[in-house]
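Prenyltransferase, ubia family, pasting as requested.
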Amino acid sequence: MERTQKYNRMTLTDFFELVRLNTKLNSLMPYLIGILFTYYFFHTFNWQNSLIYLVAQGAIALFVTGFNNVQDYRLAKSNDFKKNHNVIGKNKLSPRTAMAVMLSLLLIASILGIWLTVRTNWFILLIGIPGLLTSVFYTYGPVPFSRTPIGELLAGLFEGFGITFLTVYINAPIKEIATLNFNWPAFSLNGNLQNLLIIFLISLPEVFFNAATMLADNTCDLKADLQNGRHTLPSYIGVKNSLRLFAYLTLGTYVTVTIAVILRILPIWQLLVFITLPKLIKNVKAFNAKQTKDMTFWVDKNNKKHHIPTTFDLAPQNLSLFQAMQVIGLILGILI
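Structure tokens follow.
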């Protein structure tokens, strides 16, 4: 089919749509929070490691979304989805070309990951390799993770905890976190359990929000997913329980921040996140009332179109608002 069908040349605009560039700011916020927390808590910052990881993480973020779109196109059972909803079908792009571009991004991230390992310690691979494999097998293999009920768990762990942890690790003194050393045939693993638990605690808001965003996405796509053979978490627990879990994940972030402040892990200024609470409660209620993802519109008496925003957009909006206040709180903690 690919040899006979004519495809459009992939433009920069097509590439941005394929990787959903407009959503990538959220994936960089755990990175920024990790840098600020490391400087606040450990009083260190390594700009070389941070720059290398920024490029590597950016490449991975673009790869994951683009690769997911390619795989969704290949595995889709609905022709309507392939032609009218997936970017490859809509823009008549070559799946083979799109896959080649995505694999190039993966290669770049892998090379930079090896470079970071050389600059730091083997321990980084214990987080990096599982994250890399999850990125690939999320939509690849006989049973892709995206077609199972563990997508939310993986999104939370690797996009929330994984990015935050790696950012802290490459900037902090590694002996204060963990090291993995080899002296064939022996090896040694040493770490500071208290600091590991601290990093996990401060990453929980990112874990919860990334899981909540994935859950909102899957809840909105439930009908289309079932038509395409994808059985995500909402198909197992139902829409009502999915909405309840969405609320718990969203509002549970305030609990984790409060605990971290009480334990004096985060500065008192982190409590500024509570400014966002009324807005997030409003957004949760709006999403629970109606779950929409496709843009709709209505026409007034002057024949003018008015677009109605999707309620799915409220999930990443919650994430952005909360993370923005986290950043401000950490900056104030550093300055004051």
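Note for the archive: The chain has a mean pLDDT of 86.
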